[in-house]
Sequence to fold (120 residues):
Amino acid sequence: MPYVNYIEFNVPDSKQAAEFFKQVFGWDAQGWGEGDYMVVSHGEEPGIDTGIDKMQEDDRPSAVPVVTVESVDKAVKDVEAAGGKIVVPKMAIPGMGYAAYFTTPGGLLMSVNEGEEAAA
Fold:
């Protein structure tokens, strides 16, 4: 069954947000990949990992739930059939898998993720 396994915070300044979360919650955000993307691992404690990313210029701050699915291709078709809109088509996340972003009919931004270490 698909489940939320990750949440991504899109903010104006990811480093500033990471420092805020460190002061408030003790989170230790680490850089991941190129650019401003950072990841906070929940470690052995209950919870899910959190990504902190710099939002696009025309966006507003948001929290994006990421749902793990067996197939991003199938999820994209199901989203569209149910009235959702794909806003970022399926893309590879090297070493992690595949993802796509969509909005629900009510405008909620979400993502689906399919694990595949061989993703290029």
User: Anything to note?
Assistant: Strands lie at 3-11, 30-31, 38-40, 49-54, 62-68, 85-93, 97-103, 109-115. Residues 69-120 form a domain with the 2,3-Dihydroxybiphenyl 1,2-Dioxygenase; domain 1 fold (CATH 3.10.180.10). The chain has a mean pLDDT of 89. The CA atoms of residues 15 and 94 lie 23 Å apart.
